[in-house]
Design brief:
Blueprint: H1 2-17, H2 21-34, H3 38-65, H4 67-136, H5 138-147, H6 151-165, H7 176-223, H8 240-247, H9 277-290, H10 294-334
Length: 338
């Protein structure tokens, strides 16, 4: 009994010194290794068994005393473990779903980019189709503008159509005939404008002089004083040169040709384009500038200058002779008896 008490005391002292169970095990091993007698070993073994039995009894008593708390703790621990396991599974599933969404978003982004590019391509194709449809109507509209002498609108339309046909629409094989036709018209358009410019420079202006001369001739037959009426009075005639010269002395608030830039000249489709000869010639020059034919225009004016001036002299001489002959006829009729 004393030995058992001593063993129990050593056991308790060893447990009190070290909370680590391995310390007790090392102490037992050391005791067994140092003892030489089998009886001592058996005694040590008995003490250990007695100590373990006491521990089991104490543990059973504690379990009985705290059964409810232990059961609650175990159930709570199981619930917590299950929740943690479920949370891990859910997190794993969420990660998998996020990876799947990421892949799908990449695919959707590629599809959206593809659709966006296709939308741009379709929009460009539609614009080209609209442009082709408008260009197909250019020959008819061009003919109407040329017939009504709205040359600036015709020039703009022709230049724009040719630029489109030789630019964005160059690869469209179905427009090759139209391309050749409009290109040919563009190459010859400046000839029509130059002829119109010469007609207004030399013919239309002198026709106005002739009309004034005829009116003055009729007035002279009424007053019977033909010698006092000049044959041609061009002092009040508004030619382009005089128009420019008088504009130098115009007030800042007045509208003059010098103050009006060629870029500001616009064509009114509702009015007669030849009503104002000066503006009409400005429109012709603007059209020739758009066609880039100003050097050819200057050369044509220089080449035809002498010929046109001779024609003016010839027409003026014919008008003077006709007026003189008409006055002689009138005088001869007045001298008859009746």
């Amino acid at each position: 009994k004393m030995a058992a008490g001593e063993a129990a005391g050593r056991y308790r002292s060893t447990m009190s010194k070290s909370k680590d169970p391995s310390g007790l095990l090392i102490s037992v091993i050391r005791t067994l290794s140092t003892s030489d007698d089998v009886e001592d070993r058996e005694t040590e073994k008995g003490r250990l068994e007695e100590a373990y039995e006491k521990c089991d009894r104490d543990l059973d008593e504690l379990i009985v005393q705290h059964y409810t708390e232990l059961t609650t703790a175990i159930r709570t621990y199981q619930s917590i473990t299950e929740r943690i396991t479920n949370s891990r599974n859910k997190i794993k599933q969420v990660k998998e779903n996020l990876l799947s969404c990421k892949m799908l978003l990449h695919c959707k982004r590629d599809e959206l980019r593809k659709l966006w590019i296709e939308g741009i391509e379709h929009k460009h194709v539609l614009n080209l189709l609209d442009e082709i449809e408008n260009i197909k109507q250019v020959p008819q509209k061009l003919e109407q503008c040329m017939a009504s002498k709205h040359y600036l609108n015709a020039t703009d339309m022709l230049v724009s159509a040719v630029d489109s046909l030789e630019g964005p629409l160059l690869q469209v094989e179905g427009l090759s005939d139209l391309r050749l036709e409009l290109h040919s018209k563009k190459m010859n358009m400046h000839l029509v404008l130059i002829d119109e410019l010469h007609r207004h420079l030399y013919i239309k202006s002198t026709n106005r002089v002739g009309q004034r001369n005829k009116e003055k001739g009729r007035m002279s037959s009424l007053v019977k004083d033909a010698s006092s009426v000049p044959l041609m009075d061009v002092t009040n005639l508004s030619t382009p040169r005089k128009f420019l010269e008088t504009s130098q002395f115009s007030t800042p608030g007045s509208s003059s040709m010098r103050e009006t830039s060629l870029l500001e000249i616009k064509e009114d489709m509702e009015l007669d384009p030849e009503e104002n000869s000066t503006v009409f010639m400005g429109i012709l020059i603007k059209g020739l500038a758009k066609l880039k034919k100003i050097p050819e225009t200057v050369k044509a004016i220089q080449d035809r200058l002498e010929q046109e001036l001779k024609q003016i002299v010839k027409r003026s001489t014919t008008q003077v002779a006709d007026n003189g002959y008409q006055r002689g006829e009138n005088l001869s009729q007045e001298n008859q008896p009746r």
